[in-house]
Structures are given as C-alpha cells and as structure tokens.
Amino acid sequence: MSDFRLLMIGAMYENGGNTTHRFLDGHPEMFVYPFESQIGTKYVNDMLSSLFPLKYRWPVFTLDASPHSDYKAIIDEEGKVRARTPHVSKFRHMPFSMNDDERCEIYKQYIRESGRSTAANVSAFFRATFDAWKDYRRSGREKVYVGYSPIITVDADKILRDLPSAHVLHVVRNPWSAFADTSKRPVPMALENYLLGWTLNQYYALLFKEQYPDRMHIVRAEDVMRDSKGTLGKVCDKLGLEAADSLARISWNGGELEQVYPWGTIRTPTPEANLQTARELTPAQISEIRLRARQYLETFDYKNFIEE
C-alpha cells in the first residue's frame, strides 16, 4: 500500500482534533472522513490497552481472519451507528447516505485485489467509505484521505511504518482548557488521569517527530483557532497540497458549520473562547495542572497561558 496517501490526525481528548478535522473537511484535494475514524479492533493488546479505548488505536487483525471478519472487526462506532441506526446517532440531523453493507462489499473487493494486511485493510476501509457514500460532495481533485482518531498519536510510528506515504498530524491544546472541556462530559476523567493521558500524547508526538521529521507534524490548537488557514496551510504544503480557502472555516461534507459540536466538546473555536474555558477552573485545579504538565509547558509555549 505504498501509494495510499493518508493523513491521520491524533490528539488527546478535547485537544482540538475534531476542530482541526472540521477545518480540513472542505479541502478540495482531501477525502475527509465524516466522523471520528475509529479504526481500532478488539485485538489490540499492549501496555496502553488499559489506558486508551481500543477503538482509537491502530488496528490489529488476526492471522486466520477473512476479509469479511476484518471489516467487522474495525470498530468505527460513529460511522456504523450513523449508517445502520441513524435515529440513535448524535449526527442524525446531518444528511448522510451510505449503506454499511454495501461499504463492506466494496471493502472486500479491494481486499480481493490487494490481499490482507494492516495497510491493505486500512486503505480498503477508507476507499470503500467514499465509494459507498452517495451524497459525498466531490471536487474530482481528491488525492489524500484524512482520518481522525483521538490519542492515535501513540501509534504514529505504526502508521508511518505500515503506510510509507502516510503522514500524521498531532494537535496539542493547552491542558487547562482541555481539562475544563473534558470535565463537561457526563462521566468526566479525574484530573490526574486526564493529565497522564495528555502528557503521554505529547511524549509520543515529540518522540515520533524526532524519528519521522518529514512525516510527523505537530500544531497547536491555539494556532489553528487563531489562523486556521495559515497554520494548516503549512501542513498542506508539506503534503504537496494547496492552502485552500476552505481551511478558513469549519464544515461537514463541505457545508459550513456554525459550531464544532457535536463533533467535539469545543463549540466555538476562537482564542477568546479557549481562554475563557481555561478560566472556568478553580485556582487549585490550575495549579495542579501546571505541576503535572510542567515538562511540556515551555516546549509548547503554554507557561504563561493562564495566571493562577
């Protein structure tokens, strides 16, 4: 699958991954997956399996599986729920014409041509999605497939190893705003657990940036919010793509959105809203986050983001 061009976005929860995904959505040279592309399988089993949901990891497939069972193993919760049971999907208000069984058949046809492997399976999954998506707005100029899965940055080395033409884009957001937003979830993570995940994501992003400097990219959510076209245009340039005007607005299937939600907890991606979100925390929380994230605050220029 050396010719399959994938840009995979990764970010810790509430770090601007969904926001960046939506800014890329309308790009005329990109096939942008409509939801989180949760390509993990239940067969992922390593030291990080107890820390991060398997649906967000780079997939593992069993040696004795069939193409049909491989497809079924890909969790893709948001996509399959919207396609198969749209009435319970949080995206039910958005038009989306795709039959999941048809996508499976297209997927299997790709695998009959390529054979089974992690790279071939992932390639077939993305290609089949856009072949089966009936009301997808095509420009006819698409070259690169774009996916987003939270925390998949921890597997960036596997992505770049399996797909020689792939790139990974990691998004980092200041930990105060990020934790304040994740605290709004029905069952929020404890501060110490959230910061463990946040710091691990930054560790792996910086490590793989050193190992794959030409294919591993890092942007700050703050810079995307401040100047999405300028910030993401630089990433596009590294992929040999244009800095399209569409990078200046959030959209879904090319249709402009008023807010990112329900794609992510961030509703209004502006610097002002981002800072105001951080200020929702208590002084004690602000101080503890500074302590737990201390080794990365200077690296990402967050030391003076908020005063205690």
In CATH, what is the class?
Alpha Beta
Radius of gyration: 19 Å
Number of strands: 7
Main β-sheet, spatial strand arrangement? 2-3-1-4-5
> What is the approximate shape?
globular
Mean pLDDT: 96
Q: What is the count of structural domains?
A: 1
Characterization of the model:
This protein has 308 residues and is an alpha/beta fold. The chain has a single domain, classed as Rossmann fold, CATH 3.40.50. 42% of the residues lie in helices and 9% in strands. The chain contains 13 helices and seven strands. It has a five-stranded parallel sheet, sandwiched between helices. Strand 6 and strand 7 form a beta hairpin. Helix 8 packs parallel to helix 12. The radius of gyration is 19 Å and the shape is globular. The chain starts with 5 loop residues before the first strand and ends in an 11-residue tail after the last helix. The mean pLDDT is 96.
Write the layout of secondary structure elements.
Elements: E1 6-11, H1 17-24, E2 30-32, H2 67-73, H3 77-84, H4 100-114, H5 118-132, E3 144-148, H6 156-162, E4 167-172, H7 175-182, H8 191-211, E5 216-220, H9 221-226, H10 228-238, E6 251-252, E7 255-256, H11 271-278, H12 283-292, H13 294-297
Parallel strand pairs: 1-3, 1-4, 2-3, 4-5
Antiparallel strand pairs: 6-7
Which features does this protein show?
globular, alpha/beta, 13 helices, 308 residues
How would you sum up this structure in a few lines?
With 308 residues, the chain is α/β, with parallel strands linked by helices. It has helices at 17-24, 67-73, 77-84, 100-114, 118-132, 156-162, 175-182, 191-211, 221-226, 228-238, 271-278, 283-292, 294-297; strands at residues 6-11, 30-32, 144-148, 167-172, 216-220, 251-252, 255-256. The strands form 2 sheets. The protein has a 5-stranded parallel beta sheet, with helices on both faces. The chain has a two-stranded antiparallel sheet with strand order 6-7.
